[in-house]
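Bug report (template v2)

What were you trying to do?
Predict the complex of my protein with FE2/S2 (inorganic) cluster.

What happened?
Run completed; filing so the output is reviewed.

Input:
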Amino acid sequence: MPKYRHLYEHMVTYSEKANLMSASEMDDLFDPAHYAETLADFGSARTLPAWCYTDASFFQREMERCFHSNWHFIGHESEIAEPGQYIAVDLVIGPVIVIRGKDGEIRSFANTCRHRGARLLENGQGHCATIVCPYHAWTYEHSGNLRGAPAMEEMPEFCKEDWGLIPFRVEQYGGFMWVTSNGELPALTDYLGDFTSRFEGHDFGAMRVVRRETYDIACNWKVLAENALEEYHTGVVHSNSLGQQHSVPVETLGRWCALFIASETSLSILPGETSVLPHIATLNSPTDDGTYFTMLYPNTQFACSQDSMWCVTFHPVSPEQTQVRVAFCFPSGTVALDSFEAESQKYFHRWITGIEEDNAIGPVQQQGLRSPASVPGPYGPKEFTVHEMNKWTVRCVTDQ
Ligand code: FES
Ligand SMILES: [Fe+2]
């Protein structure tokens, strides 16, 4: 019996009783009744049960339902501008390569050799004339075709044409690339809904990724994603940097949600700092009036401010481990300015300071969520977007 149950049973509500059972004690972890209070109206709703952040079977269901049937963010096509340039990265669908071919086409493949499965390319960015397996040197073209396989001509039934790399779908919006292993999935632009029209003025095609950072954090991916969707914590967690922010909800269509923080000057530098980098010329109200903190379900945030943007992916590694991947972006015209090198340091400082403060509070929440006495709580008045995202998760895992 969980250690603290007897202390609480006389005073708890339904959801609290359910939560005081360990996930393994529950008859059906995915019974919609467990999540009814999360799906309630914002004013009376409760946060997700703690097992959603700790339990292995919940995590597995979430990966199957919320991630496998979605597009996965990779980066910007300008990062692989030349033939042979690639990005290799681990996704929930496994290790993936995105590479530009000699014909200029961008293709994606499973990063696994067709011989005995070795990883072909190290994670990261690079350039290769051909993709050569480090194990027995099977060699693949950028198109995925198998070009050579040492000694395999001695095997009478072997036919090179049968052993090309496993392709994935790759699609772009505004030069940003996404992949999926799901052949049935609607087109990327369907998935993005009205995200595409809202941010037309940001001219994503002209954005350039100028820096990437990666962090390994000991908490569930939703802990970090939810944190990125509320400013309730900013006056506390970022008291010495960003300070308290003030957001309003954004109505969205499609698989994304967002909050908006109005500010005359960019939120991409710390309060009190000034920058000579220009606002994006093609912006109009309201995108020129502040910063949109979006979440493209399930796990990618595009934070779009007036002069720059940053893309954050919360990659789930295990129930209690997440890799945070950040791409810092500016318009190509801004990158070309003489002042960019010096001015951009202010932006990196603000982004990295904020992200590291968020990364530090995530494991603190995770440690508390492990308590058998951790029961769903009420949402704060500025946590409307967390509620939106939690409802989306519940609907995915319970088929509601
Ligand atoms: S596993 Fe790749 S060549 Fe053998
Ligand atoms: Fe934060």
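What did the reviewer find?
The pocket of fe (ii) ion (ligand 2) is lined by residues 227, 233-234, 237-238, 354, 358 (CB under 6 Å). DSSP finds ten helices and 17 strands in the chain.
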